[in-house]
Specification:
The protein is an alpha/beta fold. About 25% of the residues lie in helices and about 25% in strands. Helix 2 packs across helix 5.
């Protein structure tokens, strides 16, 4: 059965608004998982409902290792999102993925630590599949949008998530290249994991800002990153608008819409009522059945 689209856009560094948004208003969203990074900018582009959340908050006050990704994903789910397109500034671990290029992530390596990375736990244990962590349908639409916006593109990239907030050492950068990673960033994990647990199809566009520090004599600095982000931002905003405008009139179901089917392993008589209450948005479909 088809349904309307409600697209959640998570804006990374350098992307703090959506142009052309009609009936736009910032709305505070309360989450049982804590405070989201900011209010959610709600509006529409044509017939598509849009929910925009700046990942680091407007003005970038929140560090990557201190993001409350559970609250962010929960807030987007509460505002009716059916799908999420994430935009993220990334470093490159490959010569051919140069600064200024846009990369579509297809896989992730999670090298973060001490982050709340699941909505589930004692009292309601669930194991969702992350074998294919992004939505192929959304990723293909993101490819088309970047091409339409005349951006340079790399597809099928593996994103390595580090904890930050420091950039990596040269030894680490070379190690990550050996692991097969193409991009490096600090925010896509556990964000992508949580989106899957919330049954929200997720795709990520990486805006390449630098070459990390694996190239001899080069190092990453914030000035370089910010300058490239500013250069990328106009094209990123154009690609987001192209993405939304090109969506089919109706949304066909995705297998990710039912990612929690067969994922919950805890017997019903052992469910924790307090955890169930916190999952009212994330797993409401399953818990109401």
């Amino acid at each position: 059965m088809t349904s309307p689209w409600t697209i959640g856009i998570i804006g990374g560094s350098g992307l703090y608004a959506i142009e052309g948004l009609e009936e736009a208003q910032w709305i505070p969203v309360s989450s049982p998982w804590g405070e989201p990074s900011d209010e959610v900018l709600c509006g529409r582009i044509g017939d598509v409902r849009v929910r925009f959340l700046p990942r680091h908050g407007r003005g970038h006050p929140i560090a990557p290792h201190q993001l409350n990704s559970r609250a962010n994903i929960d807030a987007l789910k509460r505002t009716g999102c059916t799908d999420i397109l994430a935009i993220s500034a990334v470093g490159s671990l490959r010569e051919e993925i140069e600064p200024g290029r846009f990369a579509i992530a297809s896989q992730f390596i999670d090298h973060t630590h001490s982050r709340a990375d699941s909505f589930f736990g004692n009292g309601l244990v669930a194991h969702v599949s992350m074998a294919d962590p992004v939505c192929p349908r959304l990723s293909a639409m993101a490819v088309a949008a970047i091409k339409a916006a005349k951006g340079k593109l790399a597809m099928g990239a593996t994103y390595l998530a580090i904890n930050g907030p420091q950039f990596s050492t040269r030894a680490e950068s070379h190690l990550y290249r050996g692991w097969g990673a193409d991009l490096i960033g600090m925010t896509a994990m556990p964000e992508a994991r949580l989106a899957r647990e919330a049954e929200l199809p997720y795709a990520l566009i990486g805006m390449v800002t630098d070459y990390d520090c694996w190239r001899d004599g080069e190092a990453v600095d914030v000035g370089q990153v910010v300058a490239q982000m500013q250069a990328n931002s106009d094209l990123a905003r154009a690609a987001v608008v192209q993405f939304i405008k090109a969506l089919p009139a109706k949304r066909a179901p995705s297998p990710i819409d039912t990612a929690l089917d067969d994922a919950v392993i805890t017997a019903p008589d052992r469910h924790d009522p307090a955890l169930l209450a916190r999952l009212d948005a994330v797993a409401g479909r399953l818990l109401r059945e």
